[in-house]
Each structure stands twice: as structure tokens, then as C-alpha cells.
Amino acid sequence: MAHLQQTLARTPAGDAPKPQTGGLSPQRERLVKQLILERLDQSLEVTELARACALSRSHFSRAFKCSTGLSPQDWIRAQRIARAKLLIQHTDLSLTQISLECGFCDQAHFCHIFTRSEGINPFAWRCRVVKGL
């Protein structure tokens, strides 16, 4: 006990972990993530997500990033890429069909975002995954 008190006495007060504040409530975070995932194939506006949480756009964006570590747009993009990877791996859909299923405006945009995210284009990724099976 005395050792613990000595250790705490030597620890600067500023080093204590601070509770995270400013994020979305667990209910709002769950709600908005569910909304995003249900409508991943559609165009999603941050304003619409903020409205679903009854928050202003700027407050929602800050709170979402505080809760998830990513901006709403980055989180949506990551979910679209994750879904695309599942579709590439487990279906025979064309890359054009996959891009539309995942909410990208066209195949070129999908290929650009996928390559930027994964370091390889989706066609090459599909070849690598299929070869690995």
C-alpha cells in the first residue's frame, strides 16, 4: 500500500488518463453506424446523419471523429471498401456492379479509392484472393 502511494505521489497529475469527452453517446453512435451500413449503397450526406442524431453538422462531425477516430466520410469510405472486398472475394459480380453496390458513383472512382486504400487495384486484389483460395 505504501509503495502504491509513493508511486502515485511521483506520477505527475497531467499523466493520468483523461476520460474521453465530446464523443457521441453509445446510442447515437450505434444509430448512425446502423443508418450508414443500411444505406451504404446510397449517397449519404453528413447533414443527414447529423439530423438523425439531432445535432448540428459541425458538432456531429467532431463528436463522430472523437468516438470513432475517423471523420464520418472516412468511416463511410472504409465501410464501403470493406463491403467491396467481401463482394470481390465471395461473388462473381463485376467490378462495375460492386462499385454501385458499395455506393461509389462509378467504377473509376471505386478503383481509385480502393487502390489508394489497399495499395493495389481491385482487379489485381481479386486475382490475388482467388489465387490464394
From TrEMBL:
Its main location: cytoplasm. Residues 1-25 are annotated as: Disordered. The keyword Nucleus does not apply. Residues 30-128 form the HTH araC/xylS-type domain. InterPro entries: AraC_XylS_family_regulators, HTH_AraC, HTH_AraC-typ_CS. It holds the Pfam family HTH_18. It comes from the Bacteria. Keywords: DNA-binding, Transcription, Transcription regulation. It is found in: Cytoplasm. This is AraC family transcriptional regulator. SMART domains: HTH_ARAC. It comes from Pseudomonas ekonensis.
